[in-house]
């Protein structure tokens, strides 16, 4: 075990034994002081940390988010002056116009990430604090928190707002509304809450580590649940006789073949969606009735022609480079597992962590489309329409994100362990 501050290990110290969810190593963790973190000595995955905020403080942040949310979502953020007519843009108006003008599936994808998930995330944190005050075991709330957290993308929407400002100013005079302050603060508080709350530690607040695991035991008998990151010895069984986690009741030890099938199915579906997403028009702008369709790449080129090279770089990175790189990395890791290729394990884990971190930023282009829909409506001299590629692009982002979540990094470490064992025996 490694920590970020020195800790003296003695027999009197309390310790617990846990499995690492990334590399499956069994790690002995001593009592941590405030500000310390326990890190797996093999893969450097953070197992426990004491630097997170208390649930009470997080709930105060969540309450502030809910108070600001109506102003951030429904009130105008930016406005344009088109032939003397002021047109406002808001998060909700963009989703609503997209849904009512024939793009309901694309609008639903944006609604999930930009409206529903941020509100649900804040509500869950508040409900968890209420459960703690009322001494209730909120198993379902904790499971929901783990599922919802990766899909909270309010910070991505904030960047999309900046891109939209640069895109619209070419066609009309742009004004920034006072409610943009509420939106910025909501995005910052949501990002802060996203960073400071750790579902694993919240699980431990309500369901502490089993005392049996604090005693020395054989490594083979220690089980691990990926859903709630819980290490235990004796699993429960459901009605079908399958072993389940005693804390969250999720099925454990799913066969590797099933995990690989799920990952392959989702990834291949995402790859199929990427072809129309890159080849078909992402958006269509009508100037005096003359259509101008933009694909993902032509949209980047148009920003470069406007001289907005930094915006072009952001859009290219989020909409083209990240989705394609994510697919290539996942293909590489899956091929390594299937053909048992031994490459640098540190490099492979670093690539997997990159995929988890950058995947959500691919939604940037869809958020820009939603804002453009609320600013430029049908019947004006400037007319804007969402292209057919938008839904395929959103579906590709969703599918590849879920594929990355389904991939089990322990399969890579199993290949590494077998190779190390052969090397030792030889």
TrEMBL record:
Keyword flag Transmembrane: yes
Keyword Magnesium: no
Location(s) in or outside the cell: Cell inner membrane
UniProtKB keywords: Cell inner membrane, Cell membrane, Membrane, Transmembrane, Transmembrane helix
Residues passing through the membrane, by range: 60-83, 103-128, 140-166, 178-195, 264-289, 309-339, 351-375, 381-404
Topology versus the membrane: Multi-pass membrane protein
Any Pfam family hit: PqiA
Family: Belongs to the PqiA family.
Protein name per the record: Paraquat-inducible protein A
Organism encoding this protein: Aggregatibacter aphrophilus
